[in-house]
Amino acid sequence: MNHAPTQNAQPLYPFAALVGQDQMKLALIINVVNPRVGGVLIRGEKGTAKSTAVRALAELMPQQKAVADCPYACDPRDAAAMCAACRARLSAGQELPVATRRVRVVELPVGATEDRLLGSLDMESAIGEGQTRFQPGILAAANRQILYVDEVNLLDDHLVDALLDAAAMGVNTVERESISVSHPSRFTLVGTMNPEEGELRPQLTDRFGLCVQVGGLSDPAQRVAVIANRLAFEKDPARFVKAHAAAGRAIARAIAAARRLLPKVQAGPEILDRVVQLTLGLGVDGHRGDLTLLKCAMTMAALDGRRAVLRSDVDAAALLALPHRLRRRPLAEMDFDIAARIRRI
C-alpha cells in the first residue's frame, strides 16, 4: 500500500519531523487507530504545531475504498454502516462503483451555520412535490475522514453539541417539521483551542474522549531542532519530506497493524478494576471517563502489538483520558500533571 505524500502544490510538513509534543502525537494516533475513543481536544497557544500535526497525520493514513458516487464515501465492504441509498442499491442487486482514496482532513470553519454543518432539507420540494431533497453538509463530507475543528471554543455551543452527538452516535440526523433524514457520520474528531481566548463549557469538554495540553518547548536542544527543521523544510520541501519518509512509513505501518489487532485485544477483570480504581481515586464523575479510559488503554496495547491490556496501559491512558474530567473550580486550569497522583492510587 502506498503511503507516499500526496502530490500537493506545497508538500505538507511531515508528522515524523515534529519535535516533542509526544502526548499530542500519541493522542492523535490513538484516535485514528480507534475513532471510538471519541476524539481529542488539543489545548495550547498558537504556534505549537497543533494544526500542522493534524494535517500531517492524514498523509500517513492507509488509503480507503469508498463508493465512488456516494456523498458519504460509504465503505463498499460494510453494508451495516452504509447510507440508505447505498444499501438500497445493494439490495436491488446493483454493483456499487468503487474508488480508492486518501483520508482527508475536513475542516469546520468557526463561522459555519447549522445548515452548513448538518446539511439542509428543501422543505418546498418536500411539501409541494412529495420528494425529500437533502443538501449534505460538513458532517456528510466528514464520514470516514478526520474532522478538524480549529478554535472549537469559539463555536456556538449548539454547533459543538451537534458535532459531538454525531461523533458519539456515528449518525447525523436532520429534522425539519415532520421530515427526517439520517446518514452515516463516523469520523475522527480533532478540536483545537487556545485557552486564552475562552474555555469550553465543562459539559462539552467532557465529551471529547481525550484531552492534551501543549505549549512551547522548554528544552533548548528541542527548540534548536524545531528551528533547524523548519528552515530545512522551507529551503527544500521535497528533500525534507523525502528525508523523513521512512519514519513516516513506519508510523503508517504501526497504525495499520494496530487497527488489525485492536478487535482481538482483551482486558481482564484486573484491568477493569484498575480503571475504576483510577476514576474513583481521581474523583471523576459519571461513567464516560471509565469507558474512554478502557478504550484508550486497549488501543495503546494494540499499538504496542499486544492482545492483552496491562496495568501500565491503563495508567498511561489516564494521562490522556482523565485530566479534563477531574473536579475543578470554575475557570481553573485543568490538572494535566497527574502522574504522581496515579502512582499513589
TrEMBL record:
Q: Which Gene3D superfamilies match?
A: Magnesium chelatase subunit I, C-Terminal domain, P-loop containing nucleotide triphosphate hydrolases
Q: Which UniProt keywords apply?
A: Ligase
- Give a GO molecular function annotation for the protein: ATP hydrolysis activity
The AAA+ ATPase domain extends over 36-219
What is the species of this protein?
Answer: Desulfarculus baarsii (strain ATCC 33931 / DSM 2075 / LMG 7858 / VKM B-1802 / 2st14)
Instruction: Give the EC number(s) listed in the UniProt record.
Output: 6.6.1.1
Statement: the UniProt record of this protein carries the keyword Ligase: yes
Record's protein name: Magnesium chelatase
Annotated InterPro entries: AAA+_ATPase (IPR003593), ATPase_dyneun-rel_AAA (IPR011704), CHLI-like (IPR045006), ChlI/MoxR_AAA_lid (IPR041628), P-loop_NTPase (IPR027417)
Q: Does the keyword Glycoprotein apply?
A: no
